[in-house]
Specification:
two-stranded parallel ribbon, 9 strands, 42% helix, Spore Coat Polysaccharide Biosynthesis Protein SpsA, Chain A, alpha/beta, 7-stranded mixed sheet, 18% strand
């Protein structure tokens, strides 16, 4: 299993997107499997995930009893993937905002780097269907976090990533308390503080095709103050 990679795919009310995106992920690279982490979606997404798992041995499902935030879902998925023995573990959205066609690029970069970030803000990256306000919020958020944390990373809030298992094993995941954008910032910060090599590869982020965005004012507000907590948190700043 160490030579295979697992895409952790959190879902909440993604009944229309899930059966479409899973085949695209599996087709992107032979070494990829999918772990759907469903937070008891009231629209029946969990049942669809079970059907996909019955149809393919490369798909498995983790059912969680309730919605606890994106960060909690990812941490639960990471634990399952690590226990299963995957050598590389990826995260991405289930709504096609992250293009499965870019998965091979992340996997290729992970042969040299410890953590690969799909980046909207390096040369060749970008966004589609975003208004000026959303662009300013996203770019400003990354600049804000980059300045406070002293990091060279251009896109700190993105959620399209590939980790080598050694990275997740060293990040002290049980001590991570952030969710949303702050969760993405914190994992990258912890990886860099522990001496891992982090690189960015360009992606184009496309606003979701179907359904409602999960972004909220509360998630943005949390990221603003959590950055300071991350900066002075002993667990986040520990070195390996």
């Amino acid at each position: 299993m160490i030579d295979r990679a697992c895409v952790v795919l959190p879902t909440y009310n993604e009944i229309d997107n899930l059966p479409q995106i899973v085949p695209f992920i599996l087709a992107a690279a032979r070494e990829l499997d999918v772990l759907v982490v469903d937070d008891n979606s009231p629209d029946g997404t969990g049942a669809v995930a079970d059907r996909l798992a019955q149809e393919s041995p490369r798909v498995r499902v983790l059912h969680r009893p309730r919605k606890e935030g994106l960060g909690r879902a990812y941490l639960a998925g990471f634990e399952v993937a690590l226990q299963a023995g995957y050598g590389r573990i990826l995260e991405m959205d289930a709504d096609f905002s992250h293009d499965p066609a870019r998965l091979p690029a992340l996997l290729a970069a992970s042969r040299e780097a410890d953590l690969v970030l799909g980046s909207r803000y390096v040369e060749g990256g970008g966004t589609v269907n975003w208004g000026i306000a959303r662009q300013l919020l996203s770019k400003g958020g990354s600049l804000y976090a980059r300045t406070i944390l002293g990091l060279p990373i251009r896109d700190l809030t993105g959620g399209f990533k590939c980790f080598r298992r050694e990275v997740l094993e060293r990040l002290d995941l049980p001590s991570v308390r952030s969710t949303g954008y702050a969760f993405q910032i914190e994992l990258t910060y912890r990886a860099i503080k522990r001496g891992f090599r982090v690189v960015e590869v360009p992606i184009t982020f496309v606003d979701r095709r179907v359904g409602k965005s999960k972004m909220s004012r509360a998630i943005v507000a949390e990221a603003l103050w959590k950055v300071w907590k991350i900066r002075f948190d002993p667990a986040a700043n520990a070195v390996r």
